[in-house]
Amino acid sequence: MTMKVYEHEGFPNPARVRIAIAEKAVEDQIEFVAVDVMAGDHKKADFLKLNPSGTVPVLELEDGTTIAECTAITEYLDTLSGDISLTGRTPKERATIHMMQRRAEADLLDAVGAYFHNATPGLGAEIEGYQCSDWGYHQKSRAIKGMHYFNDVLSRQNYVAGDQFSMADITAFAGLAFADFAKVDVPAECTNLKAWRERVSQRPSIAA
Ligand code: GTS
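^ thats the input. predicted complex w/ glutathione sulfonic acid below
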């Protein structure tokens, strides 16, 4: 079985799916298709047929079904074999992982993204179109507040959603990677967050 992942290698959201693929060890079932985001190919008609939001990554199944949104893609890959490891097995685990994943997405990854796309040149005037720098700076503050929140969470537990690595850690890790790229520093006092980052970056799926 071959699935396709449309992506731009090295970008933070595609990296989430790359990590999930490595965690699930399904690389041999995936064909990666490069989409040139810098050239605006993700806003062209052919790509919009795959994902009307015009964002990467997108998973395409063998039957042509297309799945966008990293959470949905991760959920699919995690439940495919029946050996669930990233999205929780019990109702309580699943709910907690989804809750923390969403916090990591809204308060870290997307907040940094909004800063990058609104308050810096981002991907360049042609691709960015509308920008609102006030909104961007507001989202930068949100990201820093999010770093403090996760630092506090990680003073009580080893991983973002509890005692096990999950989809929520993947999102938070991608959020910090995007923060590095956008030059949003992790505050020095966020030592638990930094220690967690060091720990998860040693996982083979992330180190790769
Ligand atoms: N919520 C989406 C998901 O989970 O897949 C976000 C996808 C997203 O914003 N992807 C970015 C994109 O395609 C790439 S990344 O830089 O964030 O990794 N951006 C292009 C654009 O023009 O918005």
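The CA atoms of residues 74 and 149 lie 24 Å apart.
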